[in-house]
Design brief:
This protein is mainly beta and 358 residues long. The chain has no helices and 30 strands.
Length: 358
């Protein structure tokens, strides 16, 4: 395993941004490339806590005193280039989805209940979706697949997932899925056009919903997997489930990540991933991402992101750490074909891209 430290240098680059350097053991034969995609400024209060990638194009949320804006960035020869931006009046949270055409941001809580804000092709006006009656947890999670949108509304005893469809730029309510599992709707991930995975972390469960057959499969986490279903990621037949409060007892909860494989219609636990240093309250599994034979999981309270590759088993290949305690490295993650986007929203906020190679 190679442990890579993100070292923030005091010197500035020519473009005025702080420089970063990866330091590795001298016996390590490889080095990873990194770039700062976006960095907080005195006029940008929050960055690195909400972003998504689709087909090599990144959308990130920036929050400034005058409100929120979304920016689209693509990778240039030596830097990330902003191609489009749009400012919106509605408040937005950290739940964000992007399908290459439409950006959706969910925000739960607030005096007027939760909302989901959709912007098509970076053109105003935005569409604001609300639950009826207004519920504060609406918008806790959002997931896009093609012209279908799922919005989570977890509750203390059950939860609801609201489904919408888009046609000619207009969003229409499709149906609501209510399920008697505490926290149902806290995390969402599409498996296919007709199958949606829903996290119910308060019940330590994940529910796979087949929309065509109106059928559900419940995957129950073990007794110590507190928070099981807080984060989800899917790729083909692989399902990755974060349990950030997993531990032996309530006073020792370092967190864990559960990896499942689907064979036919059955989901089988393939492996449980844990940090090499089981630091209490690290919240490992707060965010997870999977693409092909690579899984990335974060422990924001420990300022660490761990990268795994599938060999005979899922094996740690890199550990990426921040030297700045409290930066919450890995509060948000996204994988593309060549690397991982890592958010560190505290201390002004930075959004990194680490090139892992194919």
């Amino acid at each position: 395993m190679r442990r890579l430290a993100l070292t923030l240098l005091l010197a500035s680059t020519a473009c005025g941004r702080s420089a970063l350097e990866f330091r590795q053991p001298t016996d390590s034969p490889t080095s990873l490339r990194w770039q700062i995609v976006r960095e907080g400024t005195p006029t940008t209060l929050d960055i690195g806590s909400a972003f998504a990638v689709f087909d090599g194009r990144l959308v990130a949320r920036e929050v400034a005193p005058e409100g929120s804006r979304f920016v689209e960035l693509v990778r240039g020869e030596d830097d990330w280039i902003e191609t489009r931006r749009v400012a919106i009046a509605a408040r937005t949270g950290t739940a964000l989805a992007w399908n290459g055409q439409t950006v959706v941001a969910g925000t739960s809580g607030g005096s007027d209940g939760g909302i989901a804000v959709a912007i098509d092709d970076f053109m105003l006006p935005e569409t604001v979706l609300r639950s009826v009656p207004h519920q504060g947890s609406f918008g806790r999670a959002v997931a896009l697949r093609g012209d279908r949108l799922a919005v989570g509304q977890p509750g203390d005893l059950d939860g609801v997932v609201h489904l919408y469809t888009q046609e000619r730029g207009a969003w229409s309510f499709l149906r609501a899925i209510r399920f008697p599992e505490a926290g149902f709707g806290a995390a969402l991930a599409w498996l296919s056009d007709a199958r949606l995975v829903v996290g119910a972390p308060a019940a330590r469960a994940v529910v796979v919903v087949d929309l065509e057959r109106d059928d559900v499969t419940i995957i129950a986490g073990p007794g110590n997997a507190v928070g099981f279903g807080s984060s989800l990621a899917t790729d083909d037949t692989t399902l990755v489930v974060g349990a950030p409060y997993d531990g032996r007892d309530i006073s020792n909860t370092p967190g864990a990540v559960y990896v499942y494989e689907r064979v036919g219609t059955r989901w089988t636990l393939e492996q449980v991933l844990r940090r090499a240093d089981p630091e209490r309250d690290a919240l490992f599994g707060t965010r997870v991402a999977v693409r092909g034979d690579r899984i990335v999981a974060s422990a924001p309270n420990a300022d660490e992101v761990v990268v795994y590759a599938r060999r005979d088993a899922w094996t740690v290949t890199h550990s990426i750490a921040s030297p700045d305690p409290g930066s919450r490295l890995g509060a948000q993650l996204a994988l593309d074909a060549d690397g991982v986007f890592i958010g560190a929203p505290n201390r002004g906020g930075v959004l990194y891209y680490v090139e892992l190679g194919r």
